[in-house]
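Please check the following for our workbook:

***
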Amino acid sequence: LGRLHSLFPFSELARQMHLKSSPFGRKSYFSPEGKIALMVLKSYTNFSDAQLIEHLNGNIHYQLFCGVQIDPLHPLTNPKIVSAIRQELADRLDVESLQLILAEHWTPYLENLHVCMTDATCYESHLRFPTDTKLLWEGIVWLHRHLCKHCQTLHIQRPRNKYLDVRRAYLAYSKLRKRKKSQTRMITRRLLQLLEKLLDQLELLHSSYRKRLTLSSDYQRRFSVIQTVLEQGKNLFAGKKVSNRIVSIDRHYLRPIIRGKETKSVEFGAKVNNIQIDGISFIEHISFTAFNEVIHLKDCIHLQQQLTGVRVKALAADSIYANNANRKFCTKYHISTSFKRKGRAAKDEPLRKILRSELSRERATRLEGSFGTQKQHYSLARIKARNRKTEVLWIFFGIHTANAVCMIEKVEKKKRKAA
């Protein structure tokens, strides 16, 4: 933990994020540097928020890492401290500027700065597999609960609908081991009709009792998401194509990511295009909607040159990146690639072939291997964040905590050479 702590310039990161000791008018238990250290510790230990607070109370090494001293007679009992700090940091996160600080701190210990490796992966969100019926039913349950709450607040009779009948039908449908297409279509039709009915009833309440009802921004956002779900559900039921399809009412920003893998044809989460410099990964582009990583190759090269100050001379990337535009760009700037040769062989083809093979092997083992390491050991397997900003923060600290662990060996190696 001590070596891991020494690899993060916590003061510079806190200064760049403009963190304060008392952000909400009261003194925080953690210093600005301690808040960042707590996020690193969470990624390193792979604990939940409650487990992290529990271990922090009883582990003096964790307390030293975060710069706090907890009285054993008065331990921390509120695990929401971690989520509050996560939200505070997420609001101030600027991936590009923070990565510049980390690169400046780590570059003296890196080798082969002229070699760029790039690939994209999906960091999945913690989400049940979405279906049309599940999504519609979740919207119905939320609307019915708030309809009952509003009527109770206003002391008026609840409007009639078919909620109880549809609930029984949906429960019977969900218990079926095998579902016929006709059964799915029938329950979907009933769910769409009930969802539309509940939306109309709530809209009538909103307009009639506007002054007596206080509707939060979160309530209004979710209401509008459910309206979009209804519109998309109708189009899908009619056999039309739907773009920007919503897969979760709670996390409406998620979109299906088609990956073409054998085990998972579709994933739900953030798609990230990474570059790797001597085994250390940096985020080039992150998005919750699918994008074509091929067009980001030039940006990857520019990012590496910005982070290291060294011109890229060799590039290792998947075969999907090997389009004509990228080939011409690499040829123009004399960048050797791992792409399969097109056209007539050059005079030094045997040497080029060896270089292509070595670049491809390094990319396949180090870069793709780092994705598995991050997901298995640094809290990136199924991200449990609840909104877009905190999910990006979660990914950022997971990737760079994994980097810092790799940097420990590089720093020790440099010290041995110097000695």
Strands lie at 115-124, 256-258, 266-277, 280-287, 314-317, 336-337. The chain is about 55% helix and 10% strand.
